[in-house]
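pinging the channel bc i need a second pair of eyes. not urgent but kinda urgent?? the chain im working w is below, pasted from the shared doc
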Amino acid sequence: MSLVRQRIGRFAYGADYNPEQWPESVQDEDMALMKRAGVNLVSVGIFSWARVEPAPGEYDFGWCDRVLDRLSGNGIAVCLATMTASPPPWLARLHPDSLPRRADGTTLWPGSRQHYCPSSPTYRAHAARLVERLAERYAGHPALALWHINNEYGHRNARCYCDVSAQAFRDWLATRYGSVDALNEAWSTTFWSQRYGEFAEVFPPRTAPTFQNPAQLLDFRRFSSDALLECFLMEAEIVRRHTPEVPVTTNFVGGWFQIDNSAWAPHQDVISFDSYPDPHDPGTVPEAAYRYDLMRSLGGGKPWLLLEQAPSAVNWRDRNAAKAPDLLRLWSYQAVARGADAIMFFQWRQSRGGAERFHSAMVPHGGPGTRTYREAAGLGAELGGLTELLGSRVEAETALVMDWSSGWALENEAHPVGDLTQEETSLAHYRPLWEAGIGTDVVSPKADLSGYRLVVVPNLYLTEPEAAENLIEYVRGGGHLVLSFFSGIVDACDRVHLGGYPGPFRDLLGLRIEEFWPLLADWSAPLAFADGTRGTGNTWSEWITPAGAEVLATFADGDLAGRPAITRHAFGDGVAYYLGTRPDPETMGSVLRRVTAAAGVRPVAPDLPAGVEATVRRSADGTRWLFLLNHNAFELTVPLPEGAVDALTGHPLGTTSELSRRGVLIARLPG
């Protein structure tokens, strides 16, 4: 059963609620406005540590008691935060060792948030004491539906370089490698006289004269994610001990992620995500779709929670755009279309003071007589009528592979191209699939791939033997694979696979790469396809020698003229394609259309106009729900299968329907 259906009974809808910012007299109005807007879940207490523990060991929960009682009395459930994301100023004053430091030694002080070292025993002890008191006090409270551990782990303190973290890093390395000799081998420390005689000589990768050891950088990223995970697990153990029946989550955040979400996901009862697309950025819609598909996939396809988004403008960009009319609704349904069973905002009532006073809220400074509140209330009413959708899952025939260690290593220094980023690379391959309306999961290279017709691997720079064998066996068993350049290059310690590029994938791809020929930022590489069509590549080119692979496209000029750029190789019962350059968006779209057709991958809704996003969710009883989202600023006509019914109105639909600008259509499809 869907967690939201089980705990809430309908789509969860609401916001972060921070009543401690206001006189208690405001709360009666809040309750009335929440019920009018269809709010049934709020996050409480995210930044309340200083309020509930004004001095060490002195607690004041009275205000929180009254808030939870009032919410419960109005039928509104609570996602209760453990309040540990922003320690009170007294902790820094009494225990400055709890503060984080940057790589250059700068201490990060109170006055903002997340000013704690994740490895600090002092921070952990005080956090655990607070969480213990919270869990004891609110176990059994009728409002408690979900535990919200900390907040946005790693968003502002992903890596700490202080002496406490240095010792924790050494301990982590000793556990990982067992001996200094093994560490030296893994880190290739014979280079530049870096060999260590004992673990005490190892430091975090603090500011250094020039390029740092890539294996050290990578391991410090892994350690830092694990240090934060230890904090999460500490708090989760406490609340689960007191309230084993209450689900636990924490809100992942960002584009390219500072923590290894794939390692954290198994410890969540439900995946939660904070999403802040930029209305000024034309590429923001497919980026959001990619992140939503990733969140759903991290939970094994189960529905996830959109725990934060902005009702309108944020406050932290150089230019903070308001959301145009109907964009609040459209972008919320984009999350629902990609598997969300909860739509939440930051925050309920717009702050009068503080750094986020100009961040929008469901109730703006202007009060409920505003466009934002009206749109939010309208969405709440609609979601209240979509209970049948709860728990349904998104259909996907394609998987896009993404690995955190590989991405972190890809973004390290001293590579043939210095500005490759994991998310930009992933999006270059994801965007054409999104445009074509092809359902896509985002998975680990070690995941079970047998259920997918097509697997796309943007850049798996770091490739472990288990991952390589998994991809090879997928193709051998009949799968279709697309692998892009600079994959299969190094092992888990960022050491190059010898014998020629692309390491473990040479036989799979039927080729060998002798040299990388990266392109300057403003250069492009004309491509000539075997069928007579033309295309363009950018970012990268390389000297490819076929060893059984069929050449689909060659570089059309320059020193690589006539040499392979894109290949196809039959392997076992399947096919592996290789992209030796980054096709531009039009060319990438053309290539992936050919590949998806060959793999038998079908769009969820064919013949849609450009700018219309399409997904399908399937309920356990087999009912299918088609989502059509018009991201255009104009009305258009969309085709529909016969027998479709409007899920919002219950009215039968014809074989076509008008979709208003920024409009949404949810159709129940015939059996």
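so The first helix runs from residue 3 to 7. and DSSP finds 18 helices and 28 strands in the chain. — does that match what u expected or am i reading it wrong
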